Amino acid sequence: MTRQAATQTGLDTIATMFARAKSTGRAAFLPYFPVGFPTYADSLDAIEAMAGAGVDAFEIGIPFSDPLADGPTIQAATQIALENGITVRKCIEAVHDLRARGVEQPMLLMGYLNPLLAYRLEAFVADAHAAGAQGLIVPDLPPDEMPELADLCAKHGLAQVCFLAPTSSEDRIKQAAARATGFLYLVSITGVTGARQTLPPDLTGFIERVRAHTITPLVLGFGISQPEQARSMNGLVDGFIVGSALVKAGESGVDAVADLAATLRDALDGV
Amino acid sequence: MIQEDKYTSVEASELPDARGYFDEFGGRFVPETLIPALDELTDVYHQAMADPPFQQRFAELQATYTGRPTPITYAQRLSDHLGGARIYLKREDLAHTGAHKINNALGQALLAQRMGKKRVVAETGAGQHGVATATACALLGLECHVYMGSVDMARQRPNVFRMKLLGAEVIPVESGSKTLKDAINEAIRDWVTNVRTTHYLLGSALGPHPYPMIVRDFQSVIGIEARQQMLDQVGRLPDVCIACVGGGSNSIGLFHAFRHDAPVDLIGVEAGGRGIASGEHAARFADPDIGRPGVLHGTRSFVLQDADGQIKNTHSVSAGLDYASVGPEHAYLRKMERAYYTVATDDEALNAFKTLCELEGIIPALESAHAVAETIKRAPTMPRDSIILVSLSGRGDKDLDTAMHELEHLT
Q1: How far is it, in rounded angstroms, from Cα B306 to Cα B40?
Q2: Considering all CA atoms of chain B, what is the largest pairwise distance in Å, rounded to the nearest integer?
Q3: Total number of domains in chain A
Q4: Does residue A38 have a cis bond before it (omega within 30 degrees)?
Q5: What CA–CA distance (Å, rounded) separates A144 from A158?
Q6: What is the pTM of this model?
Q7: CB of B297 within 8 Å of any CB in chain A?
Q8: What is the per-residue pLDDT across B314-367, written as a single tens digit (0 to 9) for each?
Q9: Pick from B217, B281, B245, B235: nearest CA to B371
Q10: DSSP string of B122-179?
């Protein structure tokens, strides 16, 4: 996929990824994993192992001192990453290193706004693109703030993912649908990240409300951790994100992360 | 009165703009889940401001419950001792619960009631905002949960007990530096989770729009009263207004009424901690190495951060000033050169604390003592017929443990 990058934009690559999953009748599986947890080397090993398990794309987490959309699991992991000296620059390097290891899936860098501003948005987008990333996800940046980021992403063909929540109004849905590229990130519940036993009952209604306004792929996140939950994503949404459950597995080592990723991936095929 | 025609009157506020910006500062940088709640709060606030019964109820509570107007006090012995400007104190320490925080807490609790939200969450640093929120919730029958860093709980124990007495649940925050910044993170996480039933009663003029506007407007009573009291009782406006700046609510509340009075200098005092050179402080404007524009807790303002954009841990002897960012309107006033910002160190604040106790019989909050410290530096350089107005934002009973410990080391 790195060789294709010269001719295919990040947006193209992401669109192809969703189309391929759809053609086999399943939702795409997008794991989140933070760079630097429990160590830099371990985090890359974990991502490489998940790539081998056949996941569809990655959210590569950039640590921040004050992650206010994250629950305890990701807070603790990214705090360890910071103590390991992980910077924005190091996270961009991680994308580069993962490409060098042969990881081919699309990668989206996910981080809070302030470290990206400190790096300078223009440099960040250019360097992320050069390292082989296909998109950006910024959880504390609503679609009506900092329009310059959209221009920068467009210039480099990168996706800028926007969020929608169960509380979002029709107007907000339209606004996010107009701005988002790559996919729309639907937050399944009002809350912070973290594994949950059950997903809310009104999920279908929320997804249908968004679907009415856009053909952009819809990806569900927050709370998904179990194979049955993963399987229920088929036909419901175009993709889903699992973060905290994989990070929790990371406390037991790289193998545990790879095992959980394989279990979730296999569940999509009905194995 | 005598010179009133020299000054323009207070006008309706022209900022922030509809998107919550004060020039380049402000905005709304929060997870999407919260945007509808911010929109609702903005709408309800504007409705309430245009609703005479709401205004009447608020005014009545301010008069009969908070004890407003708070007086201005001429600090004669302090003025004589310093031998320069005449010093007046705006006595927010005499408001119910002992600080200016009640002004905003009551206003927002009324808004929560108007929105039909029966559950309130708040953050607190020194505990003054937590106490004010617990008080307002007790008065209006709202459920109250206060997040407080465990470091702050240890150094402001009396306030923790007061909140519990008032029926609030106080939730210790163990993440990060375990101070105000981390308490705000946890309060926002709670709010994101319970947003449909819960109002976040933010205590300072920071956070995402509309909070900086709402908190300023509810605190602007400080300056509106003080300005009129100066005209009525002294016959003219002060030459200088001085207030401490943590998030910046008492200072913006004082400054706002004077913003069009060009001859009046507005001075904000940040926490200099162990000195700017030490790096252990909370002076966002004074240390260009680490104090730069950035985004924290939903607003773009000056933020203490490292080269990688990670938020720095701060230090101040006063929990209420111990915060890495500052309200966006202060960043704006500074950029426009309408207000000026300086620092007082821990030791300067402690000396000022002691001085005000001994010369005026007033025990100030350690936060307010920072404003007094700047007054002590500035008054002797000014002529006898000049006037300084100081915001005495709170009383210091909550600080007695800290003061006893710290003053021992000073002597």
Answers
A1: 35
A2: 57
A3: 1
A4: yes
A5: 18
A6: 0.95
A7: yes
A8: 999 999 999 999 999 999 999 999 999 999 999 999 999 999 999 999 999 999
A9: B245
A10: EEESSSHHHHHHHHHHHHHT-EEEEEEEHHHHHHTHHHHHHHHHTT-EEEEE-STTSS
Cβ atoms of residues A148 and A172 within 8 Å = no
CATH number at residue A62: 3.20.20.70
Helices B211-219 and B221-229: crossing angle, nearest 10°? Answer: 30
Range of the domain at A178: 3-267
* Predicted confidence (pLDDT) per residue in B131-162, tens digit: 999 999 999 999 999 999 999 999 888 999 99
Token digits for B407?
Answer: 């003053």
Catalytic site residue B386? Answer: no
If you compute the radius of gyration of chain A from its CA atoms, what whole number of angstroms results? 17
What dihedral do alpha carbons A230, A236, A238, A239 form, nearest 10°?
-20
Distance, in angstroms, between B30 CA and closest chain A CA? 4
Identify the closest residue of chain A to B195 by CA–CA distance.
Answer: A190
Q: Could you say which of B30, B182, B292 has the minimum Cβ distance to residue A140?
A: B30
Interface check B176 vs A, CB under 8 A: yes
Helical pair B346-360 and B400-410, crossing angle rounded to 10 deg: 110
Which DSSP helix (H) or strand (E) runs through B273? strand B265-273
Type of residue numbered B304: L
User: Which of B27, B181, B195 is the closest to A66 by Cβ?
Assistant: B181
Q: Taking the CB of residue B153, how many other CB atoms lie within 10 A of it?
A: 21
What are A232's two structure tokens? 């229920």
The predicted complex's ipTM stands at: 0.94
Residue A237: name the closest of A254, A261, A270, A214 by CA: A214
Task: Find tokens 């993440």 and name the residue.
Answer: B175
For the question of residue B123 being annotated catalytic, the response is yes
Any alpha helices (H) in B315-396, and if so which ranges? 328-335, 346-360, 366-378
